[in-house]
Amino acid sequence: MLQNTIASGASIDYDSESGGSSGNNEFLAFTLGNEEYGIDILKVQEIRGYENVTRIANAPEFIKGVVNLRGTIVPIIDMRIKFNLDEPTYNELTVVIILTLGKRVVGMVVDSVSDVTTLSNEQIKPAPDMGTTLNTNYLLGLGTLDGRMLILVDIEKLMSSSEMGLIEELAA
């Protein structure tokens, strides 16, 4: 078994004998603005419609607040604000993807969710080097499928970055 290391240092196991991936490279595809993103489906706990949150004083703008999900306090992050996209609108298509990241549960607001996509290693290209203008450490790469391009996000790296460390404090 080989291990294919992608641009960010993340790896996907590849079984050379069967000619394919030994693990499922399945990504939940979602949209933010005009772009389509993908995250590891195994990190997704559930998908919910957007509902009002309880605001937390002095939290950064991208942390919308918290919700009580069956007894668990879940911080809700609006990825449109986090990525400096257009002014977010909240409508019937707006969803919250509930993620399980290690021992933490976090909600991520996105414009919409489209499908679960399976990508082979050949369909995942390294993220381009943007120099110092853009931090691409949390990108796994770019997935291509039937004319679609998914920006593949290592959601654990993104959510554990230094500025997202506030989430841990809010959830405590």
Question: Which secondary structure elements does this structure contain, and how are they paired or packed?
Answer:
Layout: E1 2-5, E2 11-15, E3 20-21, E4 26-32, E5 35-40, E6 44-49, E7 63-69, E8 72-78, H1 79-82, E9 95-101, E10 104-110, E11 112-118, E12 124-125, E13 139-145, E14 148-153, H2 155-159, H3 165-171
Parallel strand pairs: 5-14, 8-10
Antiparallel strand pairs: 1-2, 2-3, 4-5, 4-11, 6-9, 7-8, 9-10, 12-13, 13-14
Give the quaternary arrangement of the chains: single chain
Number of domains: 1
Distance between the termini: 40 Å
CATH topology: OB fold (Dihydrolipoamide Acetyltransferase, E2P)
**Unreliable stretches:** 1-23
CATH class: Mainly Beta
What coarse outline follows from CA principal-axis ratios?
Answer: globular
The second-level CATH architecture is Beta Barrel
Average per-residue pLDDT, rounded, comes to: 79
Structural class: mainly beta
Order of helices and strands: EEEEEEEEHEEEEEEHH
How much strand?
over 45%
Work out the number of β strands. Answer: 14
Relevant CATH superfamily: CheA-289, Domain 4
* Estimated radius of gyration: 16 Å
**Order of the strands making up the biggest sheet:** 11-4-5-14-13-12
Q: Helix share of residues?
A: under 10%
Biggest beta-sheet profile: 6 strands, mixed
Q: Total helix count? A: 3
What does this structure look like?
By secondary structure, this protein is mostly beta strands. The chain has one domain: CheA-289, Domain 4 (OB fold (Dihydrolipoamide Acetyltransferase, E2P)), CATH 2.40.50. 9% of the residues lie in helices and 47% in strands. Strands 11-4-5-14-13-12 form a six-stranded mixed sheet. The chain is globular, with a radius of gyration of 16 Å. The termini are far apart. The N terminus is likely disordered.
